[in-house]
Amino acid sequence: MTVQRNKSAELEGIELRQTETRPNGPTGRPLRSFDEPAPLKGHGPARIIALCNQKGGVGKTTTTISVGAALADYGRRVLAIDFDPQGALSAGLGVQTHDVPNIYDLLLGSIKDPHEAIQSTSTPGLDVIPANIDLSAAEVHLVNEVAREQILASVLRKVKDEYDVILIDCQPSLGLLTVNALTASHGVLIPLECEFFALRGVALLIETIEKVKDRLNPAIGLDGILATMYDSRTLHSREVLERVVETFGEKVFETVIGRTVKFPDASVAAAPITSFAPEHPAAEAYRQLARELISRGAVA
Ligand SMILES: Nc1ncnc2c1ncn2[C@@H]1O[C@H](COP(=O)(O)OP(=O)(O)OP(=O)(O)O)[C@@H](O)[C@H]1O
Ligand SMILES: [Mg+2]
């Protein structure tokens, strides 16, 4: 009798455990939720993260804006650096780019104090240093500068104590500007679009990060790979993500960003998704990424 009771209890136990098991998320690992972060008692010094992929249109700028706004909503002080002459980050945050001090002036030294170039945005706690097409001349103008790879690092040193995180939105290239971003950073976040050629070029990017680590910035590390524009309805998206997880394992963020037209809509409105459509799953996805970054220690 006793044995039987124990057996059935055991079975119940198994059943219980089974109902407790969470389903797997899109990355093939059990879905986890990340706790709402505790407020910070003080601010700074910032951890600096470069959002980098030499492939165009993978979600670097969208991620910088959206996760920057989500981190600011969690009480973090965030500075976003527009490091692309296209100025998409500045436009997406609705700040002025012409006839205002910008990142190019700071790199060239025509403005010495970065505070002069910092603009606040409609999201409290999220500031930005803008860029415009002038920045496209930077690579040519900086080529003969002393320590030309370290210029951005020296600019950011002057403001890093006032922020918890600095996000650098890189242009789609591995040229001198991107090397400056990597030299200034503690971590790299690589957005990868869930499509067939996603992994092409990532090896070269990782090689570049390794070279910067060897020669210029021993402290740099890969914070993680973020799968973007994921469409769970297509086998293709699922296969690409599977391949990305096979290749990079734990480095792939558990948070995956789905494909939705809300992002281009938010860009037109020059507002982060978290305020443009706060209830949309895409806004929640970037809030989750913010919580994941905090829980991984990539952001305070
Ligand atoms: N998850 C998403 N779903 C649908 N569209 C998206 C998503 N993320 C970004 N987009 C759109 O895709 C386009 C490219 O995104 P974004 O500008 O963020 O990429 P990027 O990597 O910064 O591009 P570039 O290399 O040109 O700087 C934009 O029009 C953006 O609105
Ligand atoms: Mg961009």
UniProtKB/TrEMBL annotation:
Q: Which organism is it from?
A: Homoserinimonas aerilata
Question: What function does the entry list?
Answer: May play a role in septum formation.
UniProt biased composition (Basic and acidic residues): 7-20
**Gene3D superfamilies, alphabetized:** P-loop containing nucleotide triphosphate hydrolases
Annotated segments matching region Disordered:
1-38
Question: Which residues does the UniProt record annotate as the domain AAA?
Answer: 47-220
What family name appears in the similarity comment? Belongs to the ParA family.
Top-level taxon of origin: Bacteria
The name this protein carries in UniProt is Chromosome partitioning protein
